[in-house]
Amino acid sequence: MRMWKSFALLGLAAAPVQAQLPFLETFDDGVASTRWSAPIVDEETGVQDGSVDYAFDYGAAGIPAAPGGGSSIGVQFFANPTDNSAGDEGEAIGIIASGLTLPAANFVLSADVYFRVLPGSEDSATEYVTLGAFTGPIKSPATAAPDDEVPFRFSVSNGNGLAWQITGDGGSATDIVRYEDAGNADTGSQSNLGSLDSIPFGTIPGVTTGAGNPNNPFEQFGFQNRWVTFSITSINGLVSFGINGATINTFDNSGGAFAGGSIMLGLTDAFNSAAGAGVYTVFDNISVTEVVPEPASAVLLGLGAVSGVYFLRRRRGTH
Prior knowledge:
mainly beta, 8-stranded antiparallel β-sheet, about 0% helix, Jelly Rolls, disordered N terminus
């Protein structure tokens, strides 16, 4: 059975003021593939089972306009849609922005995200959406073997740089994971940050969570079939991952282990059942904004922890 967990939220006393926009990707021109890497894959079978469409018309697929505006062109990820063979066949797939070096000063990375689950695909929908920063050079871009390039749970890969993953459907005992691998040194670590079940209902705008949810266990957790905005904010040595303005987790980078590098978008199916064609993720409106805090130094409001009960729920597949 599950145990009690805690979920911490951090806030900054001063809202950052936008200063410069060194990177903006809207995908609208249809040639984003020239500005991003080819797909980078960590696949347990060593054979790629996934894809990236750099000019996907999500409007034609019935997905509404992204909150950041623009056309209905974005980048689409499939992970492990077909491989249902015996053994471990999970897949992590990612892309890295070419020619981008993150600001040495404070910045905010933002991305609109849509986790699509078509009717009939709900039982195979537990996949992890990835947003990463401080991404280093790729060592093995031409191989799908699990060689520690893209974040992948169960210690398969610690990824590249500093990244966070979260399931779109809240279908895992560990829905949120942080990955650390400074400089893509193939070392680093993974930190399991708990389940959406345990986060108090209403904590994250636009994301259904469990503790105190009046509809639990009948309401699907997560953010499937709706737009949310992911962010990674680096302010005075504190790097935070957030969704729709709510801070999910903060990493202390005051020692400067993570600096420069690019950004990664991705999707991981860490489980052994094929997701099928009805489960995919779309990103749009990727931006990096260099910011200056007000006042000059960001002040930590506080660290609060709230506990919630884990509920026994379906788990997709085994590993």
